[in-house]
Design a protein that fits this description.
By secondary structure, the chain is α/β, with parallel strands linked by helices. It contains twelve helices and twelve strands. It has two domains: 128 residues, Alpha-Beta Complex (Aspartate Aminotransferase, domain 1); 213 residues, 3-Layer(aba) Sandwich (Aspartate Aminotransferase, domain 2), CATH 3.40.640. Helices cover 37% and strands 14% of the residues.
Length: 365
């Protein structure tokens, strides 16, 4: 069957390829999944049951239910322009990424994408005919005006930021983000800020780009913070004309975010999730301390990923060897134009992390 030409611009997810290689393994040590290992809090299960019993199983308004929008506006009260910003409830943060890219970028428009990057950015931009311009942030994974300037052209429309970051776990400082905000302002650029990991910041307070630069489209969600990955609930907050256009597009694509998920989201924003964050901070310390003497690796400040350099700088080759040793990790070239690193997710039990560290230490010697 002939497929649309645009499908040739994307490739199968490298993470799916890892799973294919590992298909014959029995009970592998799995440090590849970017999904919380805890179940959703019981309060959210109760909210879901109640919503179902009350018949809240139909379409909502395209833009989302008002009570959830109000909660999000309260959560983001420090965002510049929040009084006038539009708010759209999306089908996951991924849905917000797709809608924003489709709304903002024409074929040939360029977008500054920090490298390493979340895998979806590259493929969706390519699918739409926009041009990802990769901003090399190795070895410290910091986004600076000097690095951004190297990719700037008269076709540049936006800067993508993701802090805490997937796959590196790096967290931008306020000074870092202020410098990016000043650069974007000087060049009349939109900043798309993917803040899906906002709960998981371990050593400092979370800094939002939206607090520093008004022309920010902030994308967030409930999948990682509340382990609601299957409920597909996110939000987009930003300039009202942009968000209104995204809502128009949502009407003809996702229609609306899941109705029961929205009821859960209202309850979620009242929960104290600090014990979960503290648990993941301990997991971060466990894996970093286990790897630091055998690998070149930055200590992640957030999210639940760590991104070591592979021995001999050959990420894909190292991950294949790890799979042969019953360990699932993801090659860095899934998230980067380089193939020098590999990603570990420490969203796993402490026992699994300890097992993975021992395998990695043997392979890294």
């Amino acid at each position: 069957m002939k497929l649309a030409d645009r499908m040739s611009r994307i490739d199968s997810s490298g993470i799916r390829k890892v799973f294919a290689l590992a298909a014959d393994l029995e009970n592998p040590c799995n440090l590849s999944i970017g999904q919380p290992d805890f179940d959703i809090p019981p309060e959210l299960k109760e909210a879901a049951f109640e919503a179902i019993e009350k018949g809240q199983n139909r379409y909502t308004q395209t833009g989302g239910v008002s009570a959830l929008k109000d909660k999000i506006r309260e959560k983001l009260s420090s965002k510049l322009g929040i009084e006038n910003d539009g708010i759209l409830i999306t089908s996951g943060t991924s849905g917000g990424i797709l809608l924003s890219f489709m709304t903002l970028f024409d074929p040939g428009d360029e977008v500054l994408v920090p490298d390493p990057y979340f895998v979806m950015y590259k493929h969706l931009l390519n699918l739409l005919g926009a041009v990802p311009v990769y901003v090399d942030t190795y070895p410290d994974f910091r986004l600076t005006p000097e690095r951004l300037a190297a990719g700037l052209s008269d076709r540049t429309r936006a800067v993508l930021v993701n802090s805490p970051a997937n796959p590196t776990g790096m967290v931008a400082s306020k000074a870092d983000f202020q410098a990016v905000a000043d650069f974007a302002d000087a060049n009349d650029l939109v900043v798309i800020s993917d803040e899906i990991y906002d709960l998981f910041v371990y050593d400092n307070d979370f800094i939002s780009m939206g607090d520093l630069y008004e022309n920010t489209l902030l994308l967030g969600g409930f999948s990682k913070t509340y382990a609601m990955t299957g409920w597909r609930l996110g939000y987009a907050v930003g300039p009202p004309d942009l968000v209104a256009a995204m809502e128009d597009l949502q009407q003809y694509t996702f229609v609306c975010a899941p109705s029961v998920g929205q009821a859960m989201g209202i309850a979620a924003l009242d929960l104290d999730m600090r014990p979960y964050r503290e648990s993941y901070q301990k997991k971060r310390d466990l894996i970093f301390e286990g790897l630091k003497d055998n690998f070149e690796v930055n200590r992640p400040g957030g999210a639940f990923y760590i991104f070591p350099e592979a021995p001999d700088g050959q990420g894909a080759k190292f991950c294949e060897e790890a799979i042969r040793n019953n360990l699932l990790v993801v090659p860095g070239n899934v998230f980067s134009e380089r193939d020098t690193h590999f990603r570990i997710s420490f969203a796993a039990s402490d026992e699994t992390i300890k097992e993975g560290v021992e395998i990695l230490k043997r392979l890294g010697t």
